[in-house]
Amino acid sequence: MTEILDQSDLTDRAAHLVEAAKKAGADSADTVCVRGISLSVDMRHGKVEETRRAEGDDFTLRAFVGRRSATVSANVLADPAELAERAVAMARAAPADEFAGLADPGLLVKSFDGDLDLLDETIPQADELTQAALAAEDAMRAVEGVSNSGGASAGWSLGGMVLATSDGFAGSYLASRFSLSASAIAGTGTAMERDYDYAMRTHRADLADPATIGRKAGERAVRRLNPASFATGGATVVFDPRVASGLFGSLAGATNGAAIARRTSFLREKLGQAIFPANINVTDDPSRKRGLASRLFDGEGVRPQPLDLVKDGVLQAWFLDSASARELGLVTNGHAGRGSGNPSPGPTNLTLAPGDQSPEDLLAAIGEGLYVTEMIGHGANLLTGDYSRGAAGFAIRDGKLAEPVSEITVAGNLGEMFLHLTAASDLEYRFSVNAPTVAVEGMTVAGQ
């Protein structure tokens, strides 16, 4: 595995590709070289269903001729000159974009100080992943009421990226991922219910015990047996942390600088205004150690800035890359994401700060309402803020969780939902977007 841990060859190829673009006539250029390797095992009924291993490289070159640009990609870099000539020829034929261009050289990272601790050099073998998946499935199937297995999986991946620009930036990083998941089925016939548990971490030692993952999946499936419906009408809806993060994924989309520049966000006129209650704070921290989206530089080579996206309820910033910042008359804050295409703005480790109330106290204060554990579909319109999604979970009666409920739709408008949101104290860093339990007053619930 030393070939992926040592990225010197990728760094050399990136530099050669940028130089080839300049020789082909590009005024400026940048390139992203990505190398990845992954291994995963899927288990069901105590037997391995599938073992997958994948590895490969990806090379992406972006060439600028004036304000015209084009991006080309390849999986194998046999001839840098040929790829560069193709990119430059396409750029010359592309329409001009007055906001296109590399990041301001003065904003590029000059030194890579700090250790984000994103790499665990532990390299598991297939039999280790098999045993982890088996332990998760065994614990899940041992839960009373679980009637079948939807399977369990264990996985590992290692990814490296090199970014080089014609302005002299060259940077690289490596990050590891370890994951576990289990899916349980409870009940029989038409009364079956399914639920799951899932975890991912950059370091193996931080990953939950496989038996814990499996047991939680089984218990969640059993709790959903014999669901009732829920009376149609207005209600306070409480979002479990597992689904609350989706609300803040919608916030990230609505504060994306590209959407603001295109005027396709319902928050486009809200900068500097209160969009949440005064006790709500939302941050984005690209420097969080072992964070799933942490990085020393963004997709353009700019150092990412920690953002107070929402402070004391007031919207403070947009997520910006260089192009969206230029269009808005601002300066990029280092939130350009980058895959095999052009940079685009977005969050890193987005977090809703916890509130003061425990989830139990929050439920007790609500008294009657709906507790949502699963969302179905993608029903957030970021242009208007209209929100409507299928849901399942539990009724809240007398301040406590009661019978399971399903076949429900919850609806509202994100602008109003944000203004009537309360956060509980149970924040855990599980994903790249994290939120505690949240309650939203005044939503519409369609049930019976």
Distinctive features:
alpha+beta, 6-stranded antiparallel beta sheet, 10 helices, 448 residues, PmbA/TldD fold
Can you characterise this structure?
This protein has 10 helices and 19 strands. It has 448 residues and is α+β, with helices and mostly antiparallel strands. The protein has 2 domains: 2-221, 2-Layer Sandwich (PmbA/TldD fold); 227-448, no CATH class. The strands form 4 sheets. The chain has a 6-stranded antiparallel beta sheet. The protein has a 5-stranded mixed barrel with strand order 7-14-15-16-19. Strand 9 (307-311) and strand 10 form a beta hairpin.
Show the helix and strand layout:
Blueprint: H1 2-5, H2 8-23, E1 28-44, E2 47-65, E3 68-74, H3 80-93, H4 126-141, E4 146-165, E5 170-186, E6 193-201, H5 210-223, E7 233-239, H6 241-254, H7 257-262, E8 282-284, E9 307-311, E10 314-315, H8 322-328, E11 336-337, E12 344-345, E13 350-352, H9 359-366, E14 369-376, E15 386-397, E16 400-413, H10 414-419, E17 421-423, E18 433-434, E19 438-446
Parallel strand pairs: 7-14, 13-18
Antiparallel strand pairs: 1-2, 1-4, 2-3, 4-5, 5-6, 7-19, 8-9, 8-13, 9-10, 11-12, 14-15, 15-16, 16-19, 17-19
